[in-house]
Amino acid sequence: ATCGHGCKYGECMGPNKCKCFPGFTGKTCNQDLNECGLKPRPCEHRCMNTHGSYKCYCLNGYMLMPDGTCASSRTCAMVNCQYGCEEVKGQVQCLCPSGGLQLGPNGRTCIDIDECSTGQAVCSYNRRCVNTFGSFYCKCQLGYELKYTSGRYNCVDVNECVTNTHGCNLHAECLNTQGSFQCKCKQGYRGSGFDCA
């Protein structure tokens, strides 16, 4: 079976037919499935969509149970947590719905962890980190674009000279480089390449 456009988060099952991994959708399985919008809803109270998955959390005064339901809890109501709580050995602790969030100084609200600046995020050498609330993702470096080549997705250099996005002077030559480009004034002209006289 060959899938010309590839199956980003899935497997090729037939001519251009992808079977997506759980949590992904689309013809090439390149889109995150928003489980929070499904009917029936996967969470009893509140739902937070994540890349390829989702997380449930409860309203204040309720405790998240292992099956995703929310149980009323007097102790949770007293603590006043932003995203519900859990009881551990008689101690009430507030919860955050994602590993990319941490409890704030008040112990009740959740604040975002910037994985990109703390170094917790690991992106391959040709990708850059983009922080999101509760998570992060890896994006191609500037001057590169995501393309499906030789059976997988890769960040490939954008040839600015071909795409005509260089801005070189009319009397200059465009020279493509990895991740960038250079402008060089033609013979008989002098300047930066963006200005030639």
Numbering strands along the chain, what is their spatial order in the largest sheet? 1-2
* Main β sheet profile: 2 strands, antiparallel
- Main structural class: mainly beta
**What's the total count of β strands?**
18
Low-confidence stretches: none
- Please tell me what the overall shape is: elongated
Helix percentage range: under 10%
Q: Bin the strand percentage.
A: 35-45%
Radius of gyration computed on alpha carbons? 25 Å
| H/E element sequence | EEEEEEEEHEEEEHEEEEHEE
Distance between the termini: 57 Å
The mean pLDDT is 84
Q: Helix segment count? A: 3
Main location: secreted
Organism: Leiothrix lutea
Family: Belongs to the nephronectin family.
Protein name: EGFL6 protein
Describe the fold and architecture.
It contains 3 helices and 18 strands. It has helices at residues 74-79, 115-118, 160-163, and strands at residues 10-14, 17-20, 24-25, 31-32, 46-50, 53-57, 62-64, 70-72, 85-88, 91-94, 101-103, 110-112, 127-132, 135-140, 144-149, 152-157, 172-177, 180-185. The mean pLDDT is 84. With 197 residues, the protein is mostly beta strands.
